[in-house]
Design goal:
About 45% of the residues lie in helices and about 15% in strands. It is an alpha+beta fold. A six-stranded antiparallel β-sheet has the order 5-4-3-8-7-6, sandwiched between helices. A two-stranded antiparallel ribbon has the order 1-2. A hairpin with an 8-residue loop joins strand 6 and strand 7.
Length: about 325
């Protein structure tokens, strides 16, 4: 095969025609480029279209290497556990060499650190320092992480904390701890879920701003999955039920086959701050969860309330049965 390739190369080297004068060569090249541009511009010609330019994420202003680096940081942050090059490459759909180069750069700047024994990577001190420099809308999040780990140990499912966004767009996932089972279901840190179609969102409607429910209804209740609540009256009834019992679920309301079980926590002044909950398949967390599982989630939320200075738990105790 190599000999044939060399022969083919040799056969193409000799010029079959006399060389063009310099001016004619330039003209021919310009004509070729113009024809190429014309072919790409022809409508209905998918074979010669340029999808890169039509994709906003890959515009001429986008620095693709920066995009990859940010995705690496995001993958390390949301996993909560050290990850290897091969695992990251598989998760991000790229090569190990690309991932290694970005990790090497991030390590050199202390945004990522590598364990000397396992050779796996995790978020580094400079990343946390940068986070601390930002005004923190959810300053309570670090105080909740210990209870996240405890709840994960008790329930063995993926645990997440979430808080309401100020623009009424939904609740944002602030931290996630992966479950302890062989098959894990994860939530993306930074993901935003609708108020009406998520267990975390229903708690914000039930215990947060009293006017939020009607504002959300006025915006419309789009269907996200088969069992999403899209009726204003049905949502009002659901929020009343959540407020009465003190915890929420959303079986197949946001994603098919998935469910979450969540409970609220409160500040020292009794203000709703956010929620903690477990996430998994409907087979794992049924729409009729066992009392022990509900109790574990509710008690985790109450302990977070205590960490936030809510010593009497007067709000939580009155609302969580």
């Amino acid at each position: 095969m190599r000999n044939n390739l060399k022969d083919n190369l040799k056969m193409t080297r000799p010029s079959q025609t006399a060389p063009l004068p310099a001016t004619d060569a330039k003209a021919a090249m310009a004509k070729s480029r113009a024809a190429s541009r014309s072919a790409r511009a022809e409508p209905g010609n998918p074979a010669k279209s340029n999808p890169v330019r039509s994709d906003p994420a890959k515009s001429r202003y986008t620095v693709q290497s920066l995009v990859v680096g940010l995705r690496v940081l995001e993958a390390l942050a949301k996993g909560g556990e050290p990850r290897g090059v091969t695992e990251l490459a598989r998760a991000l759909g790229t090569t190990k060499w690309v991932i290694f180069r970005h990790l090497h750069t991030l390590c050199s700047q202390k945004f990522v650190v590598q364990d000397a024994v396992t050779e796996k990577y995790e978020i580094g001190p400079r990343f946390y320092a940068l986070k601390e420099m930002l005004p923190d809308r959810f300053a309570w999040a670090p105080k909740a992480r210990g209870e996240m780990l405890r709840l994960r140990q008790e329930a063995e499912y993926t645990v997440a904390i979430a808080g309401p966004l100020e623009d009424d767009s939904g609740v944002v996932i602030l931290d996630v701890k992966g479950g302890m089972q062989n098959v894990q279901f994860m939530l993306k840190v930074g993901a935003v879920f609708d108020y009406h179609a998520s267990a975390h969102g229903k708690l914000a409607l039930a215990f947060g701003d009293p006017r939020l429910l009607e504002r959300v209804i006025a915006q419309g209740l789009p269907r996200r999955a088969r069992k999403t609540i899209t009726s204003p009256d049905a949502l009002r009834r659901e929020v009343t039920k959540v407020r009465k019992r003190g915890w929420a679920m959303a079986p197949e309301e946001s994603d098919p086959g998935m469910n979450a079980l969540t409970a609220p926590f409160f500040s020292s002044q009794g203000k709703f701050e956010g929620s903690i909950g477990i996430f998994g398949s409907l087979d794992q967390i049924s729409d009729n969860p066992p009392p022990a599982l509900v109790r574990a989630v509710v008690q985790a939320a109450q302990r977070i309330s205590q960490r936030l200075g809510n010593r009497t738990l007067h709000v939580a105790d009155n609302r969580v049965q």
